[in-house]
Amino acid sequence: MVYPEAVALAPLFASPDWRQQAQESTWNRRLFNTEIARRLRHPDYRYKEHDNDPISHWANLTSSPS
Questions:
Q1: pLDDT in tens, 4-26
Q2: Would you say 4 and 48 are in contact if contact means Cβ atoms under 8 Å apart?
Q3: Domain ranges within the chain, ordered by starting residue
């Protein structure tokens, strides 16, 4: 990831609501991925469960807020 993309995604990662969606059901995960694609202006972005994708890695490991 390069600087402009990091800036575009930082609010998403900092948001408790979006972090929760990244952890939840398939539908919420799709919403999260769609929002990433929108913010990156990369409509082909897709979640990659077994790939070396840092965004997917973060979403898989982050804890839901309590």
A1: 888 888 998 899 988 888 777 77
A2: no
A3: 3-61
